[in-house]
């Protein structure tokens, strides 16, 4: 089990999770239209400003536009978060350095799951005020809720949608607490995992659609 230490800190992350749940309808054409409409309240610079100000009134749909809408920003692929160092610093209990590394990531990529997760954790371990670390905890929880509501994971057609492959493993191990993956393969544009069941995910297969990064890369290449 990964990161058991997070259990006490992020207990509410798992509240309300069930195998059958409401789903967001993720349509990337609609998302693009909404986040690029300069006259709308869903214009991405407006949404990300509220997100970076830790606006607690952001709705599930608005958070979905923030997460998936990041894939329409100019430096989406360039700013793919490099999160390996965060775990190393966390394991070594170098919490001051961990805060600095998280800040570097979140300045460029505020929707980084591990950037928000480890920032909240580091601030907690440094005994900062609850108001400081809880705001990152909430952002982390809200982003993962968006992903978990983007499908049910039972097929490629109903796959959980992510904008980075690394987010798949966060959902598998830390959100659904799946104890073991025995096999991974491609199924169309989806990653298909054969897994052991957990308390929070009862099927033996889980699908993720991370094709947005491939599509975005092709768009960049075609513009050259």
TrEMBL record:
Highest rank taxon of the organism: Bacteria
Alphabetized UniProt keyword annotations: Signal
InterPro entries, A to Z: DUF4919 (IPR032578)
Signal peptide: 1-20
Official protein name in the record: DUF4919 domain-containing protein
Originating organism: Flavobacterium bernardetii
Lineage: Bacteria, Pseudomonadati, Bacteroidota, Flavobacteriia, Flavobacteriales
């Amino acid at each position: 089990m990964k990161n058991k230490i997070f259990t006490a800190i992020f207990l509410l992350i798992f509240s309300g999770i069930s195998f059958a749940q409401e789903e967001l309808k993720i349509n990337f054409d609609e998302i693009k239209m909404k986040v690029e409409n300069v006259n709308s309240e869903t214009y991405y610079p407006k949404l990300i400003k509220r997100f970076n100000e830790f606006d607690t009134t952001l709705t599930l749909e608005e958070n979905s536009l923030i997460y998936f809408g990041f894939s329409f920003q100019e430096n989406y692929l360039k700013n793919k978060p490099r999160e390996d160092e965060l775990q190393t610093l966390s394991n070594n209990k170098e919490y001051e350095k961990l805060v600095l590394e998280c800040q570097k990531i979140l300045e460029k990529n505020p929707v980084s799951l591990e950037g928000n997760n480890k920032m909240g954790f580091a601030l907690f371990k440094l005994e900062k005020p609850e108001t400081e670390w809880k705001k990152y905890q909430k952002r982390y929880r809200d982003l993962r809720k968006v992903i978990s509501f983007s499908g049910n994971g039972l097929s490629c057609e109903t796959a959980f949608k992510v904008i980075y492959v690394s987010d798949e493993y966060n959902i598998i191990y830390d959100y659904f607490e799946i104890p073991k993956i025995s096999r991974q393969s491609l199924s169309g544009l989806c990653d298909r995992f054969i897994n052991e069941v957990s308390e929070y995910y009862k099927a033996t297969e889980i699908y993720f659609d991370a094709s947005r990064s491939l599509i975005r890369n092709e768009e960049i290449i075609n513009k050259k």
